Amino acid sequence: MASLLKRGLEEEGYAVDVAPTGADAVWMATENANDAVVLDLMLPDLDGFEVCRRIRAWSKTPILMLTARVSEEDRIEGLDLGADDYLVKPFSPRELVSRVRAILRRVGSSEGGEVPGVFASASSSTAQAVLRFPGLTIDLPARRVEINGSEVALTPTEFDLLALLAQSPGRVFTREILMNKVWGYDYLGDGHTIDVHISALRKKIEANSEQRYITTVWRVGYRFEVKTRTTVP
Question: Would you give the end-to-end CA distance of the chain in angstroms?
Answer without folding.
Answer: 55
